[in-house]
Amino acid sequence: MWLLLKYTLLYAAVLTLVAMGGMFSERSGVINIALEGIMVVGGLMGVVAINLLNAWGVPVFLAVILAVLASAVAGLAYSSLLAFSAINLKADQTIGGTALNLLATALAMVIAKRINGSDSPKIVYSTNTNASFNSSHFSFQIGPLTLNWFLVITLVCIALAWFILYRSRFGLRLMACGEHPQAADSVGINVYKMRYAGVTISGALAGMGGFVYAMTTANCSSNGDVAGFGFLALAVMIFGNWKPLNIAGASLLFGLFKCIAAAYASIDINGDGVFLLADIGISAHLYRMLPYLITLLVLAFTSKKSRAPKAEGIPYDKGSR
């Protein structure tokens, strides 16, 4: 059960980072369907960066921190394409995000094959004798529970997100642009700049989430696939009502079911190592479908109570005031 808790927290960390990224974008008024694609790009660049840093002999802990920053920059750069199309070109934000999701997978495969020099689209974090990435380098122990330092990064991001949104001038202006951009513009707030900031912050957080996914859930590798975590993060964001603390709580729920789906064959019900969850006779396919079934049920019963930003998805036209 400690192992179940450990991996639930890891899944929740990924979902929290990406969902908070979507929150910043949508709080500014831009729908970010491209979270999945941004995760792919951020994860790929993070794994490439940590491989290069490892080859240069950089200590593992520092290499991981720098790789997190590299993944954030990659996500920021990729999300700027969505910002340009949605804000400058006033294109349909859902279609633009879907296009970026499709492009990211193809782009990741091309880059991976180019780096590998073969037909393999997968980049794996390779180690040498001086620095190998394992739990002893980037984990810490609290009693019987082994936790990952990525959880600490996530907690810091949650605290910063809450402070920025509710206690800073920037956050209040950002939310004003998502609620009533005409009113925000009338008091001198540059709506275009604020929306650019919201989308690029979203990209940075989603890129970091992609790297955390690659280094934990995907066994230190990137292959252009994030197993639908970007879309799950959208559900977490809606269930969390676009609020950082609510999103963190919702991530734990979704992370638990994602963990059950991934490790049902080794979950010990009685604690005696004899009766496993897989032995109760339920089809393995149902366990794998569980996170997505829960997503549908949660959204079906809670979406009516969710309060999205009023100007979400509506291109801002200064002349429409």
Features:
321 residues, mainly alpha, two-stranded antiparallel sheet, 12 helices
Characterization of this structure:
With 321 residues, the chain is mainly α. It has twelve helices and four strands; from the N terminus they run H-H-H-H-E-H-E-E-H-H-H-H-E-H-H-H. It has helices at 2-28, 35-55, 60-88, 93-116, 135-138, 149-167, 169-179, 181-186, 191-215, 229-239, 244-263, 284-302; strands at 123-124, 139-142, 145-148, 221-222. The strands form two sheets. It has a two-stranded antiparallel sheet with strand order 1-4. The chain has a two-stranded antiparallel ribbon with strand order 2-3. It is globular. It starts with a helix and ends in a 19-residue tail after the last helix. Mean pLDDT is 86; it is low at 128-133.
